[in-house]
Amino acid sequence: MTLPHAVLHLGIDHSSTPIGDVALPTVLAVTAVVSLVVLGLGIVALAQRRSRSYLLITMALGTLVGRTLVGGLAMDGMLSMELHHLIEHTLDGVMAVLLLAAVYYARTMARPEVNTYERDS
Questions:
Q1: Which residue ranges traverse the bilayer (predicted)?
Q2: Which residue range(s) make up the domain with 26?
């Protein structure tokens, strides 16, 4: 038995389940639940704030759900590994652009002017 096979093997005997057969579906399931919860929180925050920055951040959080979905489709063999990597890296780029746009928009949007009369008194 090679070292990688031994490391990726659960149990003592050779007939036990490889960790990859258990770990990947488990990680994807946990990631799906967590990313959906985080996206839900983003949607709640967007509903309360109703700003473009919150919309962009919520869309960025949606890319996490998309990445999990792509991982699940690849694990089930519905997507090739090449397409899986292409889509995931594209989603990474989309997430980065959305977050940068949210920060830029939040920093450049018009802010209410401070009344100098109230400030000086």
A1: 22-47, 54-74, 86-106
A2: 17-109
Give the span between the Cα atoms of 84 and 72, in whole angstroms. Answer: 10
Residues 6+ apart with CB under 8 A from 87: 66, 70, 79
The encoded tokens of residue 90 equal 């594209």
Domain for residue 96, yes or no? Answer: yes
- Domain tally, the chain: 1
Evaluate whether residue 118 is within a structural domain: no
- Tens of pLDDT, residue by residue over 70-85, are 988 988 888 888 898 9
- 3-state DSSP assignment of residue 9: strand
pTM reported for the whole predicted model: 0.68
